Amino acid sequence: MKETVFMVEKLLLLQIHDFKSMETETQGEIYAQYYHLFYTQIFYMTREHFMTEDIIQESFLRVIKYFPKVCDSEKLKAWLKTVIKNTTLNYLKKEKRARECIENDILDHIAIIEGVEREFELKAMIEVVEKYLIELKPEYRQLIELRWKEEMSHKDIANMLGISEQKAKYTLCRARKSIKKRVVKEWPFFNSSK
């Protein structure tokens, strides 16, 4: 409880001073207190140390950027918990989307390859897939880049291109199949249809 009160008092300095203009030592103290205060709560949701650290950094940047101008310690604690919760949920959604992007059979089979052999195969496959992307129809390439490089949703892609969401999903599926077909031709052991 003492740590929470101390932490809130330290953070209240952000109402008076800009974080960037504070002494490095004060900045470090505020961040260290923030880190220790919320690490356990975030780790409980993520179960992963590095992800927890990323979320703490991302949420801390939001805190110093959007710190409320007038706020008592009780309201501040509630606001901080909301920032932590929202940052964590957004991060987890982003992670889930990233994992869903790797839904094709190619990467499922990569897990079988071990050690150095796996790294070489992965690098070679990435080069081949990138080569195939360049050779794709422009329509397919554009959809794949918007979906996986820009991380846009099917709905956003459809709106941007002026097509239906169903058409975006269908065309994206055809683009993935086209790439998979070429990869399987070069690496027949990646064919999961057996």
Automatic annotation (TrEMBL):
<dbReference type="InterPro" id="IPR000838">
    <property type="entry name" value="RNA_pol_sigma70_ECF_CS"/>
</dbReference>
<feature type="domain" description="RNA polymerase sigma-70 region 2">
    <location>
        <begin position="30"/>
        <end position="97"/>
    </location>
</feature>
<dbReference type="InterPro" id="IPR014284">
    <property type="entry name" value="RNA_pol_sigma-70_dom"/>
</dbReference>
<feature type="domain" description="RNA polymerase sigma factor 70 region 4 type 2">
    <location>
        <begin position="129"/>
        <end position="178"/>
    </location>
</feature>
<dbReference type="GO" id="GO:0006352">
    <property type="term" value="P:DNA-templated transcription initiation"/>
</dbReference>
<dbReference type="InterPro" id="IPR007627">
    <property type="entry name" value="RNA_pol_sigma70_r2"/>
</dbReference>
<dbReference type="InterPro" id="IPR013324">
    <property type="entry name" value="RNA_pol_sigma_r3/r4-like"/>
</dbReference>
<keyword id="KW-0804">Transcription</keyword>
<keyword id="KW-0731">Sigma factor</keyword>
<keyword id="KW-0238">DNA-binding</keyword>
<comment type="similarity">
    <text>Belongs to the sigma-70 factor family. ECF subfamily.</text>
</comment>
<protein>
    <recommendedName>
        <fullName>RNA polymerase sigma factor</fullName>
    </recommendedName>
</protein>
<dbReference type="InterPro" id="IPR013325">
    <property type="entry name" value="RNA_pol_sigma_r2"/>
</dbReference>
<dbReference type="InterPro" id="IPR013249">
    <property type="entry name" value="RNA_pol_sigma70_r4_t2"/>
</dbReference>
<dbReference type="GO" id="GO:0016987">
    <property type="term" value="F:sigma factor activity"/>
</dbReference>
<dbReference type="GO" id="GO:0006950">
    <property type="term" value="P:response to stress"/>
</dbReference>
<dbReference type="InterPro" id="IPR039425">
    <property type="entry name" value="RNA_pol_sigma-70-like"/>
</dbReference>
<dbReference type="GO" id="GO:0003677">
    <property type="term" value="F:DNA binding"/>
</dbReference>
<dbReference type="InterPro" id="IPR036388">
    <property type="entry name" value="WH-like_DNA-bd_sf"/>
</dbReference>
<dbReference type="Pfam" id="PF04542">
    <property type="entry name" value="Sigma70_r2"/>
</dbReference>
<dbReference type="Pfam" id="PF08281">
    <property type="entry name" value="Sigma70_r4_2"/>
</dbReference>
<keyword id="KW-0805">Transcription regulation</keyword>
